Amino acid sequence: MGLRVEWVRYGSEAAESLRAVIADAKAGDPLAPVTVIVPSNHVGVAARRLLASGALGPVSSRGVGLTAVTFLTTYRLAELLGASSLAAAGRRPISTPVLAAALRSALAEDAGVFAPVARHPATEEALVGAYRELRELGPTALDAVASVGTRAADVVRLHRAARHRLVDSWYDEQDLMSAARDVVGAGSGLTADLASVVVHLPQRLPPTSASLVAELAHHVPVVVLAATTGDERADGEVLTAVGRLAGVAELAPPHDPAAVVDAGRTRLVTASDADDEVRAAVRSVMDAVRSGTSLDRIAILHASPDPYARLVHEQLAAAGIPANGESVVPLASRVAGRTLLGLLALPEQGFRRQDLFAWLAAAPVLEGERAAPSGQWERLSREAGVVSGRDDWTSRLDVLAESADAEAAVIEADPDELPWKAERARRKASDARRLRRFAVGLIDDLDREALAPRTWSEHARWASGLLRRVLGGVDRRDGWPEVEAKAAERVEHALARLASLDAVEGPVALDVFARTLELELDADLGRVG
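RESULT FIELD:
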């Protein structure tokens, strides 16, 4: 079949070239299948909408529209081709907590030079990153890395030990690419369904991903539409990707980087700070809408997530402009996530009074079937003199309740006192005992869970029950904002994923479970809009 590389420029030239290549592949048949491999889902959505609109011209002789054209990332393509064979072998997709658990087990067996910091979260995080980088290397390259020094040798050893633990039951991106390549090489009917493949604007393409596309080129026609900016550093990864696909480092035609920008449609704005930049961008959006541009044709791009992502969402919301994109709030900061993580963190400081009430004030926590009266309880705990620890919560609230009962008895015995004063004192005693039961119940529950290491599934089941206990089940979320209700569902899914770590690592302490859960929730941004 073969692979052909076409060099284009970013922007309209790249889009027009994509339309032309798809039209050639369809050869007048609108139902002829074409697969377009894109660097990200965002690029796929934008390209699909542009081609379907007909603004660049038709892709077939039957009129405007787009059908039988599939836009996929290399990972998604590999998933469609190879995931079934891996699943049939009893292997599941790996996740960061699974990988971290395997590395913790390897560290526990022999930490080597990392022994003094083996339990530090930063060590675990660094080894997870190193594992992912090393997975693209073969045995010879790994040996070369290990020969650099003692630390490098231990990193490679831990990498191999974790890989040995995972390989039989789990698969990562490299395994998926390899399985997909085997399916393609075997001449599966799945490959025939692809018919024609276009690699649109390749960016960073790891060797395993490039080998999958190269294998496809032996069975179906593959066209690579590679775009450059004219800047050597900016184009470095594109040139490397094309070299991996074509087998040689293709030479891109030189051109002026400034030619990519249309001077007539470009406006430079000087702003004093990030807030002013975002306000100027939002004003430009509103001006474009007023002039007739629809919102789905407008994008705001920024250099870094911090602080621009948050500012853009805030300013668009303040202007009443709906937005679609990655959320700037991770699950760890949503109601369900922060409530569970906050509760798990309470024992670290001895269950201090200020920590408990900061946690209560940040979420709609339940006391049984009703909302916990956090403000009222805070005043009672302050009056009782609670500082921290189970003994304080028990003894001081008991003393306050008994004092209130005694006050009520004195009032009731005095015919000159008003009855409502006795009722108020009795209610105070009752509220103090309710607070004592609530606080001590949480303390005892957390202490029991932390008493001895438990399996991941035991921790996950307990945490799920604890979350339902303090926030209620699905039926309690009817009045929540939609984004918070969906976030609560994703927290439950994250707990279910952690339960699968039983197959990788034995019983762990509660603090390890809590730290892993926090990392899992911090990494999940979801989407808004």
